[in-house]
Amino acid sequence: MQRLATTATVLVTCALLAACASGGSSMKPQEVSTASLPAEASAAAQSETPLGRAILKAVNDFRATKGVDALASDAILQRAASVHAADMQLRGFFGHHNPDGQGPRERLLTLDPDFNGRVSENIQVVEGQSYASMSDQALAETLVDKWAKSPSHRKNMQAAEMTKSGIGIARSGNRIIAVQVFSGP
Questions:
Q1: What share of the chain is helix, strand, coil (3-state, %, to 5)?
Q2: Strand order in the sheet with 164-172
Q3: Which one, of 1, 149, 130, 128, lies nearest residue 62 by Cα?
Q4: Strands 175-184 and 164-172
Q5: Measured between alpha carbons, how far is 147 from 58 in angstroms, rounded to an integer?
Q6: How does DSSP classify residue 67?
Q7: What is residue 147's DSSP assignment?
Q8: Alpha-carbon span 165 to 48, nearest angstrom
Q9: What is the pTM of this model?
Q10: From the CB of residue 168, how many other CB atoms can be counted at a distance below 10 Å?
Q11: What is the per-residue pLDDT across 55-64, written as a single tens digit (0 to 9) for each?
């Protein structure tokens, strides 16, 4: 009986690892707190940056080429994106879910408990002197071009049902993290 339980545990573990390796949904706790955002990241988050404004312009320029209306900047989405960028920088992880299991929806629910719309998120990290020395406009165009080459990121950028956005930036030396949160009805 003990051997059967051990075998079952190993099989479940292998299945979970295979799902992660094959791009399956990320594993997160069943119960995720929406009571608060990570305190240190909340304190460190920049509300708005010149690079963030340049990214929004570049994404809206991209949307225009697809015949899609421009995204409006939204303060709640801005805060969620900014805290997530700062959190990734401070805690040294990269992903849509933080180590506490909070994803884009949970971050928005923390800020607006009545939020019930659609949400998606693009994240990206670039590192190196060549990126750090770029102007905000050039870096924004580079980041948006990288997102445009990825089917899932491109889908988020050109989704007509997404009408609002917030962009968070975290910088440390030559490392730049960009987070764009999209929302719609």
A1: 50, 15, 35
A2: 72-73, 164-172, 175-184, 118-127
A3: 149
A4: antiparallel
A5: 11
A6: T
A7: H
A8: 12
A9: 0.81
A10: 31
A11: 999 999 999 9
